[in-house]
Design goal:
homodimer; alpha+beta; 6 helices; 48% helix; elongated; DNA-binding
DNA sequence: ACCTCATTTGAATGATTGCTCAAGTGTTCT
DNA sequence: AGAACACTTGAGCAATCATTCAAATGAGGT
């Protein structure tokens, strides 16, 4: 199968002002460009998944905090003016993506960043949103 | 106001095994660490907003495509096996964030990337999800 | 054993999001 | 003017998500 969204479309070549060379092409628009991309697209689902993790203000702040120092859940909640439960839920997600590490000291659990790369990603995005 | 989530929490110092030095501290957990962060957190809402735009497989792929060549809506839809309407909705969002530029040629609208920085962000995230 | 505290977990809620369908706009051609 | 085409837009829907509350777990102190 060629996918449920496929259909009959026409052809366009930019710049030339040409009329559609083919009126009814099955499952492709511009044969040249379209066929060139066949199987060439990298799997960006995982990339989008990583961005989803970072696409939340609270989580971005948690990462930023933990990049600078080790903190317990309670402290993070206080600093971010949130609830312990809420922060714990977010940490659970960050843990699942191996972005944070933790160790228990008595009753308290201390979290810290386990992936400097994501901090770099955040700071780069921060620079991006600043100058424009 | 100090925020709706504030409450009375206790103090913890990692490593020392110390007992909470203060039992009831209003609106703060570890006074040392918490106060150090007062007003020090950068505004990461916009950063999270940018990541939200990238946190979708279809949009990530559109950006990847447009980084390599100029394409019309119809072609993008064909390559990504989606509908023209769906792609147009995504392009609308990308346009609102000034990530893509476009120009009309007759009936056809050609889109291309207007922000190489986001491509760098994507390729960096791609490298990240690969080796682990 | 019991109580307290720090954190985790699950269920419930409201908000946001991606996609689809149908209708609308703008452009070209006859 | 009218038809055909490329694209845009808005409403509607199901799925996902962030947050909250209440209950559960785990560890230390008495």
């Amino acid at each position: 199968m060629t996918g449920p969204k496929s259909g009959i479309r026409t052809t366009h070549v930019p710049g030339t002002g040409k009329t559609p060379s083919v009126v009814c092409e099955v499952f492709s628009s511009d044969p040249q460009k379209v066929s060139r991309w066949q199987g060439q697209l990298p799997a960006l689902a995982a990339v989008a998944g990583l961005f989803k993790v970072l696409a939340d203000e609270t989580r971005a702040k948690i990462i930023y905090l933990l990049a600078h120092e080790e903190l317990c859940v309670c402290d993070i909640a206080t600093i971010l003016d949130s609830t312990v439960s809420n922060i714990s839920h977010h940490l659970r997600l960050l843990r699942a993506h191996h972005l944070v590490k933790y160790h228990r000291e008595g009753k308290v659990v201390f979290y810290s960043l386990d992936d400097e790369h994501v901090l770099h990603l955040i700071s780069e995005a921060f620079d991006h949103v600043k100058h424009r």
